[in-house]
Amino acid sequence: xxxxxxxxxxxxxxxxxxxxxxxxxxxxxxxxxxxxxxxxxxxxxxxxxxxxxxxxxxxxxxxxxxxxxxxxxxxxxxxxxxxxxxxxxxxxxxxxxxxxxxxxxxxxxxxxxxxxxxxxxxxxxxxxxxxxxxxxxxxxxxxxxxxxxxxxxxxxxxxxxxxxxxxxxxxxxxxxxxxxxxxxxxxxxx
Length: 190
What we know:
- α2 (32-42) crosses α3, α4 (62-74) runs parallel beside α5 and α6 packs across α7.
- The chain has a five-stranded parallel beta sheet with strand order 2-3-1-4-5, with helices on both faces.
- By secondary structure, the protein is of the alpha/beta class.
- Helices cover 60% and strands 14% of the residues.
- The chain has helices spanning 14-25, 32-42, 45-55, 62-74, 92-104, 118-132, 139-162, 175-189; strands at residues 2-8, 28-31, 82-86, 110-115, 166-170.
- It is built from eight helices and five strands, in the order βαβαααβαβααβα.
- 29% of the residues are buried.
């Protein structure tokens, strides 16, 4: 089973690359961002709480995210080829919890960390915001999200380096170049 943790700052290309990986290898795609946005759209009390956090560029508490992931893993089909974790884990506590959840299911994962320069990220997110109307794609929130990423999420990379399950991916250029790097790594893993 191929399980990929797709890491990287907001705007590094995780959503685009996740779609390419899912299509190429038939993996289930868990986008915590999509799940959270759907909850917000539902108008539930939890959705309102999550929406308030996200609109300010903050992360959703670990316990809520871990419960969400546990539920997702329990629902995987027996013939599942693997999972792309897009947007999870975002904290060291989430990374450790994911390792434990996967181990209980006799599964493992590698991190493929997408790196793009900060100005490339800002430009991508501003352009995405203009096209999609996403409220969190404005300069002030982008800078807050990047600050939170550097403080809370970037240490997750060091965890997977220490576990010898880490691959650096240059995502500055374009999705085809980024995906070619991933294809090379997947060949090495098989």
